[in-house]
Amino acid sequence: MTTKSQSTLHLQSSKDQNHNHQQALTACDKMNEIFSGGYYPKITVTRSWSEHNPKIEGEFARPDAIRWYLIREFKKLLEDGADVTISPSRPAISLNDPQLLESLDEDEWDFTQKKMFLFRAERIDLSIDRLEHYTGTSAEDFQRYILFTNYDMHMQVFKDRFPDCVTPSHPVQMPAYHYKQENNMGFTLINVGVGPSNAKTCTDHVAVLRPDAMVMVGHCGGLRNHQEIGDFVLASDYMRDDRVLDDLLPLNVPITPTHLMNLHLEDALKEENMSYRIGTVYTTSNRNWEFTKKRTVSEIHVSRSIAIDMESATIAANGFRYRIPHATLLCVSDKPLHGKPKLSGAAQSFYQNSKERHLEMVINSLNRIKSNYPDGLPNASIRAINEPLMGGGE
Fold first, then answer.
1. Is the pTM of this model over 0.90?
2. Cα(33)–Cα(43) distance, rounded to whole angstroms?
């Protein structure tokens, strides 16, 4: 185990961007050395220009899993004139230690106090461990642009398009495929399965990796007369009937997709000459909502929803909670209110005709976003007044 006398690393602001980049690399190496030695690495940032919060400290775990992110944030801080110190903090708590739960209780986490990072070190450690367990892949393999689906067929399309992508080595609950590029600029696709519970679980853990964008790539029931099977739905907002986040994010908090992401997705739809509608997506936790049709249809009418699914609002709500730009592009696979329920034979025919173009449009949109915003999408619309110092895109 590392000793507390281990040397401390001091970084000072420089006008030389290459020097700042090298300092950021050295800082990440130091953090990994400290964590490998059994301690949480602590970052102390001093900003002489800040009247109320000149000095902010925070601890981390598994720094290699978010190395690309830490490098970017260190460079920003140094370029802004901050001084940065990396030092060992307290001994890391084993994931098998009962005391871990005491540090994981986010009800005790003071969100009104300016902090270094959105998550505690213990939360980072446990979330990464669970993410690797659920997805069957290493946290270091995750890329900055993450797609979510609930169908195996999209995984196969992804693998066909990126035959050298990283895949799980064994069957897992939420398999992830990673098309890796330098500086984690590639794509990750995760099959979260069916339902909002899995969608919440996965995005809770993905959030600690600080991706630049999350997109739900799924299917939905079309709710309007003039929709056809195979049409697309670009979510403008959500009717949250998923229930899994109600205690954490009140229903009266508005959730909308990231506008810039929607603009790029709509451009892709237009270029492909696809039939689509923009509107509210109704997300339910009840796959058999047809059995309580009267209540559900009443809410559909009141909310003016144009599509129904089981994951989109959950992913969007966690995107909002965790300050991650997000969007939803769905394809109509059935029309349950118009005598066209999702039946096996018709569904299989539809899937074969839609899966490649659906994924291709999302990837093309994200490629343009990467080109236009290499340092991350602006996220002011989902940032809070007490936002962590390391906050991602500006």
1. yes
2. 14
